[in-house]
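In full, the data.
>
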Amino acid sequence: MSIAVRDVREHELDSILALNNAAGPAILPLDVDRLRRFYDHAEYFRIAERDGALVGFLVGFGSGARHDSSNFRWFSERHQDFFYIDRVVVSSRRRGGGVGRAFYADVQSYAELRYPLLACEVFLEHDNDPVRLFHGSFGFREVGQNIMESGIRASMLTKDMSCSYDWVRQRYGDTLPDADWLVRPRNVAGAEVGA
C-alpha cells in the first residue's frame, strides 16, 4: 500500500481530467486544452499511484513561467523568485491517506533546491478548514488574500525555503550536481501557459 510519485505520462491525461473535474468546488474545473498546456509547459507535473492506480496529481510552475492564473500573477506581483503549486488533486476515496503529504514532500524537495519560496492558495468560500490545517502543518502561512476573476476568495499561502535554498546556492551556484534525484521531473517544451 505504498504511494509512488512520478512524472505524468501523456496517455494518463484523460484520467487526470476526470479526476480533476470530479474533485468538487474546491478545485477549478479543467478542459482538455488547458490540461494539455499544463502537460506541455508545467515545470512540475507528477501523479501519485497507490497499488498501481492513479490517485492524484500535482501541477507546479516556477516564477519565470508565463502562466495565466490570477493567483500566480498575484504572487508574481509580490515575489521575485518562487515556485507555485497551481493545483493538487487527490481522489476523494484516498483523501486522508497520505497522498497529499507524499506530494508536498516531493514538490518541496524539488523546489527548495531551486526557489526560496513555495506558494499556493486555498479557497475560502468552501469548507476548507482541513485543507488550511494541512497547509499549516507543512509550514505554510497566509500572506494575503486574492479575489479571483471568478469571484472566489483565496487565502494566499507561502512557505519560506530560504534556509535550504541559500545553502544550495552558496555551495553549488546555478549548477546542481549530476545526480538522478536532482534531475528536473519533466523536460517541457517551454514555460508559457496561455488562457
